[in-house]
Design a protein that fits this description.
Elements: E1 2-6, H1 11-27, E2 34-37, E3 54-55, H2 62-71, E4 74-79, H3 86-89, H4 93-114, E5 118-122, H5 147-166, E6 169-175, E7 177-179, H6 194-203, E8 209-211, E9 223-224, E10 226-228, H7 229-245, E11 252-255, E12 261-262, H8 263-274, E13 281-283, E14 292-293, H9 298-303, H10 312-326
Parallel strand pairs: 1-2, 1-4, 2-3, 4-5, 5-6, 6-11, 7-10, 8-13, 9-14
Antiparallel strand pairs: 9-12
Helix pairs in contact: 1-7, 2-4, 4-5, 6-10, 8-10
């Protein structure tokens, strides 16, 4: 009995895998042993612990997924694999839909064939677009503004419809800007995410850049929930355990802070933590970036052991430590 973590060699996925291992050690619950499926297009094989099986394959390859489900006696799936770049998805919509929609459909098809009836889906705050409320809840209307956000919403619909058709037990976790590191050997290598872009600029002697300072926010820069990756991973395991135990969950949960920070505020925190004084350059907006998304995490705190356990300073410090060890 295992849980398949698709995208488990990626930044978030690798933290989820280690959270599963921690849960097995803490509880002795062998049902939570992880297996990773990842095509390594953006993941790293050395992120996967030596005692965790790694299946190198894409979720788009239904035969490979079906084989992995059978070979490793999978009883549930945490689905994190996908193309996660909202801005770039505007230029590559067909690729985004292939990876995120077709991939999810083929995964669900393989799961149905193998009798695997539990899934935790990695969704996104991008499904909300630019909401007209200060703090979004799960009841806030969805209005994605990028192919990435649309593909994540369609993924939620696929789970919903498969649940009606087959009894699939599922929940989708919508989250926001995931940052920090839970272990110095796990780092965010995305070429598009704020923290790695800023830290890479500082270590190479360049000036960090803000994408747009003319948004309708207090300081003109985008406001986001920034959540620590290790906190996020704990709630994925909590969701998996609930599904494994047959406990009912909501269809979707926001993993948010109820508060937010602007990109400019993050830049100030980075300067304070690293000790490197800088004034960021300001460039044009990125396509697909809404001005503000901040969410309540109350429902997830009730059901999924969700909590903001790290301060902004700790988020930056852990990311900085991991980044320096890889450069």
């Amino acid at each position: 009995m295992t849980w398949l973590v698709t995208g488990g060699a990626g930044y978030i996925g690798a933290h989820v895998v280690r959270a599963f291992q921690d849960a097995v050690r803490a509880t002795g619950d062998e049902r939570l042993r992880p297996v990773v499926l990842d095509d390594l297009s953006s993941g790293h094989a050395d992120f996967v612990p030596e005692d965790v099986p790694l299946v190198r394959a894409s979720v788009v390859d239904a035969d490979a997924v079906a084989h992995a489900l059978a070979e490793h006696a999978v009883t549930g799936v945490v689905h994190l694999a996908g193309y996660k770049y909202a801005g770039v998805s505007v230029q590559r919509p067909l690729h985004t839909y292939e990876q995120n929609v077709t991939g999810t459909a083929r995964l669900l098809e393989a799961m149905a064939g193998a009798g695997v009836d539990r899934i935790v889906f990695s969704s996104s705050a991008a499904v909300y677009g630019t909401p007209d409320v200060d703090v979004v809840t799960e009841a806030t209307a969805t209005a994605p503004e990028s192919p990435y956000g649309e593909s994540k919403l369609i993924g939620e619909w696929l789970l919903r419809d498969q649940g009606v058709a087959t009894g699939l037990a599922h929940t989708s976790l919508r989250y926001f800007n995931v940052v920090g590191s839970g272990s110095p050997d796990l780092y965010d290598s995305s070429p598009h995410n704020l923290f790695p872009l800023v830290l890479d600029a500082l270590t190479t002697g360049r000036t960090p850049r803000i994408n747009g300072a003319d948004y309708p926010t207090p300081d003109g820069t985008c406001v986001r929930d920034y959540v620590h990756v290790a906190d996020l991973a704990v709630s994925h395991v909590a969701a998996a355990r609930a599904l494994a135990d047959g406990r009912p969950l909501e269809r979707v949960y926001n993993l948010g802070s109820g508060d937010g920070m602007s990109v400019a505020q993050i830049m100030t925190t980075v300067a304070q933590v690293t000790g490197i004084d800088f004034t960021p350059e300001v460039g044009p907006r990125r396509p697909g970036d809404p001005a503000r998304i901040v969410a309540s995490g109350e429902a997830a705190a009730r059901d999924l052991d969700w909590a903001m356990r790290h301060t902004p300073e700790q988020m930056v410090a852990s990311a900085w430590d991991a980044h320096r060890r890889t450069t």
